[in-house]
């Protein structure tokens, strides 16, 4: 299954992606986790040690490697380069391992987004396409506040796009914008995860303002998450209230994926 998690910055999408990765890992699945958010906090949220995190090499910063594969030095401007560079060995060369989870970091993309035809963005686009279309593994992608790393060729292969929201108009507006982009790309399974709920009235807020979304999870505001972050700990397995709700989301995704395969 291929899952992409996105939403406005600060809504908790990295926490959702990290706990999903740990849940699938604990049931014996091999998980490929892709940190496509420039803030790059997925490794710590999953539970990687500081030593392992220090080994992470954001792929967009590997100028020499990108030049080797594309035939052009990033930032040089002009000239010719390969638009289909070899990327099949990237995960093994630059990924870090924790339990059954292998993680790679995309890093900060070149200004202009993946639409910019430059060596580094062509390299990243080729990698994402390879991971989604070629890798026969559990894939969880922690996106930035959007879906810029996806294109028409890869978007349709995403089994589920989870948009994480919190109570607040700006978060809801971002969710609507992301869904529009997703539908334009052909992603049909777009689901909402409501986070940081303080009381039942928050559920009513989401149901009223996002009535045309399919909401598959309501996550409570949990002080344990704040304490874990303060202490430099991963939310799994200590933040039980949130984990229990994300387990329900996982069950929904598993069931939904099986139904899609049966069709």
What does this structure look like?
It is a single chain. Strands 3-4-2-5-1-6-7-8 form an eight-stranded mixed sheet, with helices on both faces. Helix 1 (13-26) packs across helix 11 and helix 4 (63-70) packs across helix 6 (119-133). The radius of gyration is 18 Å and the shape is globular. The longest helix is centred in the C-terminal third of the chain and has 23 residues, at 240-262. The mean pLDDT is 90. It is 43% helix and 17% strand. It has one domain: Rossmann fold (3-Layer(aba) Sandwich), CATH 3.40.50. With 263 residues, it is an alpha/beta fold.
Could you name the CATH topology?
Answer: Rossmann fold
What sequence of helices (H) and strands (E) makes up the elements? EHEHHHHEEHEHEHEHEHH
Order of strands, main sheet, comes to 3-4-2-5-1-6-7-8
- CATH class placement: Alpha Beta
Provide the number of structural domains: 1
Question: How many strands, which pairing sense, and closed or not: the largest β-sheet?
Answer: 8 strands, mixed
Write down the Rg. Answer: 18 Å
Estimate what percentage of residues fall within beta strands: 15-25%
Q: What's the CATH architecture name?
A: 3-Layer(aba) Sandwich
Terminal CA distance reads 15 Å
What does the average pLDDT come to?
90
Q: What's the helix count? A: 11
Shape: globular
* Tally of DSSP β-strands: 8
Low-confidence stretches: none
Report helical residue fraction: 40-55%
């Amino acid at each position: 299954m291929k899952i992409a998690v996105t939403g406005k910055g600060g809504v908790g999408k990295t926490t959702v992606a990290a706990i999903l990765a740990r849940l699938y890992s604990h049931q014996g699945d091999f998980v490929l986790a892709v940190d496509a958010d420039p803030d790059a906090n997925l490794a710590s949220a999953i539970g990687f040690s500081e030593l392992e995190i220090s080994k992470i090499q954001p792929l967009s910063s590997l100028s020499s490697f990108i030049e080797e594969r594309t035939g052009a030095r990033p930032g040089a401007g002009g000239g010719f380069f390969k638009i289909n560079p070899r990327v099949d060995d990237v995960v093994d060369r630059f990924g870090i391992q924790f339990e059954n989870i292998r993680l790679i970091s995309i890093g900060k993309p070149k200004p202009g987004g993946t639409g910019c035809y430059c060596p580094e963005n062509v390299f990243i686009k080729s990698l994402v396409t390879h991971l989604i279309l070629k890798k026969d593994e559990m894939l969880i992608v922690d996106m930035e506040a959007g879906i810029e790393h996806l294109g028409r060729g890869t978007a349709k292969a995403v089994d589920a796009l989870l948009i994480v929201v919190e109570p607040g108009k700006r978060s809801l507006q971002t969710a609507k914008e992301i869904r529009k982009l997703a539908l334009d790309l052909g992603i049909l399974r777009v689901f909402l995860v409501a986070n940081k709920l303080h009381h039942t009235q928050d559920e009513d807020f989401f149901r009223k303002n996002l009535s045309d979304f399919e909401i598959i999870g309501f996550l409570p505001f949990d002080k344990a998450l704040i304490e874990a972050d303060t202490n430099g700990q991963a939310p799994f397995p200590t933040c039980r209230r949130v984990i229990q709700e994300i387990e329900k989301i996982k069950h929904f995704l598993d069931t939904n994926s099986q139904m899609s395969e049966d069709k």
